[in-house]
């Protein structure tokens, strides 16, 4: 006890910060992976400049790759770049009603982009909506004021804040319940572009993300942006739509940023990375197909 009392305050402070970070990371992994935790209340994490800088670099390079693909017109869907056998199987799976999904990684001149203190999750998925036209599909996804009828309970509410042609500014309240309830208020800027009568694409990027506690109650409040549980600090999305084969193919590529899990918990990281982002992407794509095939009535 005497030795502990003589330790420099800076050492104790650093250890305390590391301990808080470990608890935060554990909470994120346990909650999103659906594993019970004894103390589910989130411990604050911080979106530091190095984390944000790494995420911005990752998104910038991904933006450039998407722009290059769109300028050349190929591959329009990510499955089109697969080896012939895998490409054929992917299209067959989509025709059977399945979602095809793959984890991606954007590199900087062949090197992994380090994100100290943060985790970047990058996935792409696609499906086919039989009998759907491009116009029908775009009308559904752009009807943000009615998203709750299509994407509930993943979206609690959605509202168009600004709209000019193919440019949308929207607010979306996301809901996730895995042991505890996580609610996030986001503002997205989303831009849609039509290439021709059968091809269109969009790019969305969060302008703000705030974690909400006690949602939709008189005691509701939000954490300061970037000072919360670290469940999502940013997102960039890339959607592509192509009308073909008697229906419309829809592809969604998503990059999201969360707090990092300590290296000592690597045995949990794989489950976190593979299950949660994949599950969410598959759910959104399936909801999109169901919404197009069975449009909201009001």
Task: Give keywords.
single chain; 7 helices; 298 residues; globular; alpha+beta; Alpha-D-Glucose-1,6-Bisphosphate, Chain A, domain 4; disordered N terminus
Give an overview in words:
This protein has 298 residues and is an alpha+beta fold. The chain has a single domain, classed as START domain (Alpha-D-Glucose-1,6-Bisphosphate, Chain A, domain 4, 2-Layer Sandwich), CATH 3.30.530. Helix content is 35%, strand content 35%. It is built from 7 helices and 13 strands. Strands 2, 5, 6, 7, 8, 9, 10, 12 and 13 form a 9-stranded antiparallel beta sheet that branches. The protein has a two-stranded antiparallel sheet with strand order 1-11. A two-stranded antiparallel sheet has the order 3-4. Strand 7 and strand 8 form a beta hairpin. Helix 2 packs across helix 7 and helix 5 packs across helix 7. The longest helix has 28 residues. The N terminus is likely disordered.
């Amino acid at each position: 006890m005497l030795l502990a009392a003589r330790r420099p305050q800076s050492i104790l402070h650093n250890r305390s910060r590391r301990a808080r970070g470990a608890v935060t990371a554990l909470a994120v992994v346990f909650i999103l992976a659906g594993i019970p935790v004894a103390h589910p209340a989130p411990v604050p994490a911080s979106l530091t400049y190095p984390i944000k800088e790494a995420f911005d670099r990752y998104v910038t390079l991904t933006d450039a790759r998407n722009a290059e693909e769109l300028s050349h017109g190929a591959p329009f869907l990510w499955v089109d770049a697969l080896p012939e056998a895998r490409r054929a199987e992917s299209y067959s799976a989509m025709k059977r009603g399945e979602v095809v999904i793959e984890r991606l990684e954007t590199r900087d001149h062949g090197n992994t982009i380090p994100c100290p203190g943060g985790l970047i999750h990058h996935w792409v998925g696609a499906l086919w909506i039989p009998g759907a036209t491009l116009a029908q599909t775009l009308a559904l996804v752009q009807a943000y004021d009615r998203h709750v009828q299509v994407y509930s309970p993943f979206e609690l509410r959605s509202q168009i804040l600004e709209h000019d042609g193919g440019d949308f500014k929207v607010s979306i309240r996301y809901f996730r319940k895995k042991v505890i309830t996580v609610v996030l208020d986001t503002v997205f800027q989303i831009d849609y572009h039509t290439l021709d009568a059968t091809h269109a694409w969009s790019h969305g990027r969060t302008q703000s993300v705030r974690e909400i506690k006690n949602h939709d109650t008189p005691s509701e409040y939000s954490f300061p942006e970037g000072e919360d549980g670290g469940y999502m600090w940013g997102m960039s999305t890339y959607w592509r739509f192509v009308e073909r084969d008697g229906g419309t193919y829809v592809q969604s590529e998503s990059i999201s940023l969360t707090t990092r899990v300590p290296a000592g918990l690597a045995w949990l990281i794989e489950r976190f990375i593979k299950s949660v982002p994949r599950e969410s992407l598959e759910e959104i794509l399936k909801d999109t197909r169901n919404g197009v095939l069975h449009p909201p009535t009001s």
